[in-house]
Amino acid sequence: MPVFKAFFKTIKVRFLSIVTYFIIFLIFGSMSANSSRTAMEEKFQEEKLSIYVVDEEESPLTKALIESLSKDEKVDVETGKKWTEQKEFQKKVNDNVRFFYSYALILSKGFSERHTYQFIMEHDGVGGYVINQKVDAFLKSYEIYLEAGMEEAEALQMTQRTLGEIGESQIELTGENKQSDSRGSLYSFFSFLPYSLGMLMCIGIGLVLAELAGDCLSLRIQASAMSFLKNKMEIIGAMLVYGLATLLILLLIIFLQSLGDPDLWKAGYYILNSLFLLLFSLALSYFLSSLTKDNGIINMVSNMLTLGMSFTCGVFVPLEYLGDGVIKGAHFLPYYWYIRACEIVNQAKGSQIFSGDYLICLLILTLFAVVFLVAGMIAGKVKESHS
Questions:
Q1: Which residues touch 101 (CB under 8 Å, ≥6 apart)?
Q2: Contact by Cβ (8 Å): 88, 61
């Protein structure tokens, strides 16, 4: 297997460059995964609202209500003030809401009898509506217990207990019932894969094939007893071995860094998608090697192609941050369909992943691979005819 051995001997010369791209994948993939993990944690972290309460009545009901709100929000209480009689105090409360608080709750005299209250909240403040719902729920529960014949103290105690239990309840989505647009570390690593895999194929296979096609080495191979078919089969075998070994190392990095990811059960779908990406990357590297024997040109063009597609297809920048025009143009590029398949795997339930949309993405990746492979064969034939 002289050609097969020659292929990997030439690869050894570029060992440092290959290792560099593995390190780039590890560093930047980890950074992307960590930022996604932090964003997910912050997304589901409850935010406490700052509330300013004016308690004129200072009754058991107002104290119980304030205590209930204090469990979930930051509450500051002002007592000993008469809201209706002090214009300066009203201005102070308004200023507090404008600059320091999200919401002000005014519990005036007679609140225990009428169960009505005043409030001031930020303009278009969604949090204020949430507080109103909490106050209304407290009062409604209290009234229900009173109508059931309970004493005021017992009704307040039951109201606090009931609302406390509701506040502590949690809903957890697990397994196949989970569907989320949030991105875990597994998605982050696989979405960064096109750039690293593309460059590793181009600087490995592309440059090596260009050297094997050089005038001196090419003539030596033709002068040997090796048939044309065996020569091509050994080259194809070497390409597949190098490509699969490279992908295996990248997958090993991904899984070591993604242990504990709740979406780990979707790994098979991500791997299948990456295999089709590998087919395209092999075809691209073959195409570039068939255009020229100049290593500098192959390096430059491969960087331009992989970087350009990475920036416009969602590899470096998520698709939702790209403009409509950019996304429309990205439909004509292979990396877009790889990222689109990753999005489908990330968002869909287990039974829905292997759907028409996912299979269409894999089919389009295959078509791109075939196009570049055929283009490389045509370019090679044209070069042979002119030599």
A1: 50, 51, 52, 76
A2: no
Distance, CA of 387 to CA of 379 (rounded, Å): 12
Q: Give the phi and the psi of residue 120 in degrees, each rounded to 5.
A: -130, 130
Report helix, strand or coil for 13.
helix
The domain limits of the chain are 2-39+182-386, 50-162
H or E, element range at 160 = helix 152-168
The first and second tokens of residue 162, run together, are 């009931």
CA distance 74 to 105: 13
The architecture of the domain spanning 50-162 is 3-Layer(aba) Sandwich (3.40)
Whole-angstrom distance, CA of residue 117 vs CA of residue 381: 85
Measured from the Cβ of residue 137, the count of other Cβ atoms closer than 10 Å reads 15
Digit-by-digit pLDDT tens for the chain (387 residues) are 666 777 777 777 778 888 888 888 888 877 776 665 555 555 445 567 788 788 888 888 988 888 888 888 888 888 876 766 666 667 777 776 766 777 888 888 888 888 888 887 766 556 677 788 888 888 888 888 888 888 888 888 888 888 776 555 444 444 443 444 556 778 888 998 999 999 999 888 877 877 776 545 454 555 455 555 676 788 788 889 999 999 999 999 998 888 877 888 888 999 999 999 999 999 998 898 888 878 788 888 888 999 999 999 999 888 888 888 999 999 999 999 999 999 999 887 666 777 789 999 999 999 999 999 999 888 877 876 765
CA distance 102 to 121: 6
Question: Euclidean distance between the first and final Cα of the chain, in Å?
Answer: 27
> Could you give the CA distance from residue 123 to residue 269 in angstroms, rounded to a whole number?
46
CA neighbours closer than 13 Å in the CB half-sphere of residue 199: 24
Structure tokens at 32: 């992307």
pTM of the model: 0.62
49 in Cβ contact with 130 (< 8 Å): yes
DSSP per-residue string spanning 352-374: HHSSHHHHHHHHHHHHHHHHHHH
* Short-list 267, 316, 305, 300, CA closest to 283: 305
